[in-house]
Amino acid sequence: MTTTSPAENLGAAQTTTADDAATAHVDVAALSEYLLGRWPELRRKARERAGDPRFHKDESLTPAEHRERTLEQMREMVAADDKIAWLAFPERMGGFDEPGANLACFSELVAADPSLQIKSGVQWGLFGAAILHLGTPEQQDRLLPGAMDLSVPGAFAMTETGHGSDVQSIGTTATYDPATEEFVIDTPFRGAWKDYLGNAAVHATAATVFAQLITNGVNHGVHCFYVPIRDAETMEFLPGVGGEDDGLKGGLRGIDNGRLHFSGVRVPRTDLLARYGSVAADGTYSSPIESPGRRFFTMLGSLVQGRVSLDGSAVNSAKIGLAIAVKYGAERRQFAGAGVDEMVVLDYATHRRRLFPRIAEAYAGHFANERLLDLFDDVFSGAGDTPERREDLETTAAALKSTSTAFALETLQECREACGGAGFLTENRITSLRADLDVYATFEGDNTVLRQLVAKRLVADYGREVKGATKTPAGMARFVVERATDAALHRTGLRRVSQAIADVGDPRRAAGHLRDAETQRELLADRVATMVEDVAMALRPAQKAAPDEAARILDENQVALVEAAAAHADLLRWEAFTDALAGIEDTGTRLVMTWLRDVYGLTVIERNLTWYLLHGRLSDQRARTVTGYVDRLLRRLRPHVLDLVDAWGYGPEHLRAKIASGAEAERQEEARAYYAALRASGKAPISEKALRTSRA
Amino acid sequence: MTTTSPAENLGAAQTTTADDAATAHVDVAALSEYLLGRWPELRRKARERAGDPRFHKDESLTPAEHRERTLEQMREMVAADDKIAWLAFPERMGGFDEPGANLACFSELVAADPSLQIKSGVQWGLFGAAILHLGTPEQQDRLLPGAMDLSVPGAFAMTETGHGSDVQSIGTTATYDPATEEFVIDTPFRGAWKDYLGNAAVHATAATVFAQLITNGVNHGVHCFYVPIRDAETMEFLPGVGGEDDGLKGGLRGIDNGRLHFSGVRVPRTDLLARYGSVAADGTYSSPIESPGRRFFTMLGSLVQGRVSLDGSAVNSAKIGLAIAVKYGAERRQFAGAGVDEMVVLDYATHRRRLFPRIAEAYAGHFANERLLDLFDDVFSGAGDTPERREDLETTAAALKSTSTAFALETLQECREACGGAGFLTENRITSLRADLDVYATFEGDNTVLRQLVAKRLVADYGREVKGATKTPAGMARFVVERATDAALHRTGLRRVSQAIADVGDPRRAAGHLRDAETQRELLADRVATMVEDVAMALRPAQKAAPDEAARILDENQVALVEAAAAHADLLRWEAFTDALAGIEDTGTRLVMTWLRDVYGLTVIERNLTWYLLHGRLSDQRARTVTGYVDRLLRRLRPHVLDLVDAWGYGPEHLRAKIASGAEAERQEEARAYYAALRASGKAPISEKALRTSRA
């Protein structure tokens, strides 16, 4: 995801001067339309569904009732004419072959009920997708219809109690028996029980089970098997299958997560999902992919869609929280201000600081997800399915999912606290949404593990680059000199000193510098490049070291790896936001959105100011202007924030928070009228304080 | 809370060298005993109660059942011989006059069920305490027994829908009627409904109601009235009283929060809680406190105990989360390491970084709460009840409560994520605890409001100091010169340059410098002093400015005010931790605890490194050593972290998390045994990968 921004767009960033206040405004309808992205009609339809009360989370249900209702809602989705649930499935089976649009719509479902989103994701995005992506056409024809129309609710049995992130080490085995042409599925010990599986506790009658495929005494690694687990009539476990309910969870209580285990469960040879590996009747294994490692990662590749959609729905959830907190904050008054009325809490500097940068980040996250959807659609529609693009897709999805899910949780918490005690009431939505979103940080790839995956890719890319550049002795010499010069320039602070000299006596020049989009880009990109380079150089000796020493070197750099990945995600989001500015036609809207992009870029820089100082990228003087300039931008954005959250297109049917309904303003109006009438009546008591003052 | 630390204690901080590894250990039993603090027997008893299953949160209950059970648990507490619930009440009424011990014990109750803690707090710490602290001895004798023995469950009706933090602006009125010698309580508009009141939805038969006291046409400000609200037999609202249930909340579902409103409800003149203000039969108002402002703040002063106890229980909750995550992390293995086995996740650098600094901060918070309890006990026992100490108490409680509640929420979230998907299951406790703790951030004083209160006090103190120092022209001149010199020294980086010169070529000296307790103290204290001074100087023009201009100046400095308060709390906690080291007799334990204190101090400095750089307090070279030195300390602490969390004294009956029970290690043992037996049998499949390698 590299980018080139049109010049006029960079220009806009620099002209935030005198008469801008007059120009600045937000065309809410147009911006809202723009945000619908590449599949506006489908997304609109999905958002309408999310606003339909039939699909809303009902907070009054018991967990058991909530589970049943969620399944019922999925059945209604299947029954609906639009068949949005089938967007990703093949046309020949009644689907639409629209993988990107499918995820865009799926991300909207979170506004109805995250349990509905995730249980749908289990059925169609994991169980169904495993058949679609890992099965042969014959297997698709045979097994997909039941998954699509919900006649076969299914579990995706990959994770085990003992192994989550490290799927390669799962313990479940599928041993081929040539005598009967069957695989025998076994759970050899408690740690190999399948765990945390949606649909497994109650509803699933089948599962796509990942197991070590063993035939002729050879373990060919993890493969996926289609395994019926319950009698569809009695809903009793089939022979050899057992399991238990995972019980209550911190959220997503509309999903029946459970555990499964297998003892000598036999499935026909033809129910190994055989696209990437199959076993002949005599037990001979074959695969179109030679390398067991590459085969494994190819099979797991389809999981990327979960990360892409969680990224989108995490951003959407943050938007919902922010819209609620901003609407309430714009009405809620507390403590006297300079005027007659008490002050609206959104006018407090602390409130601006708590909420506005998060509005900017939500926009950055939105645009980054749009581009991720593009990339996903390219790869999965087959339009641009190259190994490089697949790798890009996986890295980008991992970088964005880990960032946006963490962002959503922090944002929802900030919003809940910004609404005070009212934010804690379930009727105001935020705590409920946050509880459901909590697990997004660790499922479909633990965020810390994902960031290491991203960083390893960045380091590997850097390694390839260096290898290319240093193939000749001259190239190597140049590389060494450049690195040494760069380090000297930064470590000794020479670059910083030159900035300080350029800015002497002119703080405006320092601030103007930061407003420039190219400066922001350079600061963000340089940080990623430098962090990756530093950690790559630090890791080099590990390649030739003894295991213990290699482990020590990795240990010393692991935190830096994770930080480099986070910095990479920040850059991706900034680039996406900047690119998106070019598509905004209305000048006033583009101006406000450019301020917002600046807030995003500069708050990222502000968070990492220590790094910029210690690496000599910013002079003290320039660094000192960052916070003040961000504060000025936040004040400038104040008149537009309600428009900015409205443009996300969430109405009361999506927000569903009493405090965001105008009730607070009504109550204040009533109180104001009461006091006015009291004063007019001449019966208003005089305050003791006033009395003492007048006496004195 | 200033402090002087014994020299030997500072010495310990500096000797973390070669043979320390041999000395370093934790005497868990002795440290645990030490942490019991000033009232060890009572605290032990309270912790035993928190471990008793009868008082545990039952996750399977419906909210309605949970509410009933919580009340039932409170009745059991009253029935118990120890009468811990009555510690704060007067001896003459069966209590113990032990205000400090009472809060220490109350903070332990969070380990049983936060709903039980907070509902108890409503009954005895708010409703009962209002009678105790705002009532006359006659009123105490008459009204306290019912509050104490739960024959009168009560609500504390202060907050209104329209006014939370700004209590002075509440709308409920109590108008004196001399004809009947009664007060007439009225809720004039919807915003004046009492809201978020524990006990109000179902159980309360009476309430202590805060209202504007109006007599003879004068409003004497907010006073508290004892108002029966429900018929104790039928539990119907009494005439003129109405209300509704607040419904579901994000947590604390064992508490029946509700709303109340009053229409012409009459209470006898003698039921105005009259310690700080009374009305004679003819309607004449009198008060021992002349100033209405000071009277108001005196009446609200007793609320400080809520903040003191929330501080303690927030720290305790963080400890529970950390103990669970550390115990699981020490057993859970994922991905191959350098050895034969997979790596224990606690050995990952990222995991150390996520959890260990929080262990240090929990200790800092613990010791700070101990000192806060001392201060509270001094004031409320009467042993040291001066206006200055009351003010100190309020400032310290506000600083610590706002810091520890935020810390607890972030820590519980980090712990939940560190446990992966297992952390999301209710059976592993953390999500449930976090949901309950959520509201601690905004009730009993919104954290952002509390921090402003702290900062205003710090700024006022600074003003008094300056005023004193600059009374003479010579003093004024000295002040001006000192400030100018200091600013020049820091702004121009001269001090930093001198550090750089001192450290040249010797990174060890730079790190050694940070290890020194006096350096840490100076860095932390200097930051608070400078921030307060800067903001005080910036606010000065506001005193003489027009309202709009004054508001603008305040707005520009509000974020800095909040940050100064947070820095103050960090310093208080560091001081408390450092003081506590002196009381640890065992050398090995003191050494480990000193490392831990260093981790706390240095991570605070690390978080604020930008400030130290931009204010010229640390040279680049010294700043660059901070992170590396913290990382070294974390590695050094690794062998001791299980001991450090065990010393908190929470057994399985307090943690109640399946993943912290040893089950994970058992499962791994079983898996290991399975694979060993398989290898021994000669029937183990060979991996395709190994086969390919051997063939090649």
TrEMBL record, chains A, B:
SUPFAM superfamilies: Acyl-CoA dehydrogenase C-terminal domain-like, Acyl-CoA dehydrogenase NM domain-like. InterPro entries: ACOX_C_alpha1, Acyl-CoA_Oxase/DH_mid-dom, Acyl-CoA_Oxase/DH_mid-dom_sf, Acyl-CoA_oxidase, Acyl-CoA_oxidase_C, AcylCo_DH-like_C, AcylCoA_DH/ox_N, AcylCoA_DH/ox_N_sf. Residues 301-459 form the Acyl-CoA oxidase C-alpha1 domain. Residues 47-66 are annotated as: Disordered. Residues 155-265 form the Acyl-CoA oxidase/dehydrogenase middle domain. Its cofactor is FAD. Residues 518-659 form the Acyl-CoA oxidase C-terminal domain. Residues 72-147 form the Acyl-CoA dehydrogenase/oxidase N-terminal domain. It comes from the Bacteria. Keywords: FAD, Flavoprotein, Oxidoreductase. Pfam families: ACOX, ACOX_C_alpha1, Acyl-CoA_dh_M, Acyl-CoA_dh_N. PANTHER family: ELECTRON TRANSPORT OXIDOREDUCTASE (PTHR10909). Belongs to the acyl-CoA oxidase family. This is Acyl-CoA dehydrogenase.
